[in-house]
């Protein structure tokens, strides 16, 4: 099982460490040629979505990644990654991949609460630690989207097909169950229809 981590900007190293500790092989996507290697799942890490979105285009990685996501490749998107997946942003005119039918609000927590830590229930997993850093939340989700977690009545985790979108940063806490869930999705995908796409 090989997982590709978008590594043009942001918090990608922490995802790599987490996934390797769970036995997954990782590659980093920094340039177009990196996409020539086969992989089975994709991480869109936290960072700055505007920078990542711009670099995806400039580095000519956008079309290929969008196609993989649309064809069902499992994706774990955290924070800025969630912004890249969202079909709509309520306070920004950009749309990046637009493959996840939700409306996301960027930098949604006020200044004092710019960064915070809490624990909350994630459907099918239990209570997990959650670190939020200038985080977005999900304002609305289409009917077909499964809501996995709320914090203070705000949606902070969703799944739609093989796309998981999170407002928080599971790679920054010691708990590994979210990444385990993601690797489980990849394993199912490989078993059912081979999601390794070039
Ligand atoms: N505020 C960032 C953005 O809008 C996201 C923050 C994060 O990824 N920790 O892209």
Structural features, described:
The model has no long low-confidence stretch (mean pLDDT 95). Helix content is 26%, strand content 33%. The chain has five helices and twelve strands. β7 (115-122) and β8 (126-133) form a beta hairpin. The protein is globular and about 40 Å long. The strands form three sheets. Strands 2-1-3-4-12-11-10 form a seven-stranded mixed beta sheet. The chain has a three-stranded mixed beta sheet with strand order 5-6-9. The protein has one domain: Rossmann fold (3-Layer(aba) Sandwich). It has 198 residues and is an alpha/beta fold. The structure holds glutamine. Glutamine (GLN) binds next to α4.
Task: List the secondary-structure elements in sequence, H or E.
Answer: EHEEHHEHEEEEEEEEH
How many separate domains? 1
CATH architecture descriptor text = 3-Layer(aba) Sandwich
Mean pLDDT: 95
- Shape verdict: globular
The CATH H-level homologous superfamily:
Class I glutamine amidotransferase (GATase) domain
Q: Which ligands occur here?
A: glutamine
- CATH topology: the name is Rossmann fold
Helix count, DSSP H or I runs of 4 or more residues? 5
Portion of residues within helices: 25-40%
Rounded to an integer, what's the Rg over CA atoms? 15 Å
Q: Class in CATH?
A: Alpha Beta
List keywords for this structure.
alpha/beta; Rossmann fold; binds glutamine; glutamine amidotransferase
What layout of secondary structure does this protein have?
Blueprint: E1 2-6, H1 13-21, E2 25-29, E3 41-44, H2 49-58, H3 62-70, E4 75-78, H4 80-85, E5 86-89, E6 100-105, E7 115-122, E8 126-133, E9 137-141, E10 146-151, E11 154-160, E12 163-166, H5 177-193
Parallel strand pairs: 1-2, 1-3, 3-4, 4-12, 5-6
Antiparallel strand pairs: 6-9, 7-8, 10-11, 11-12
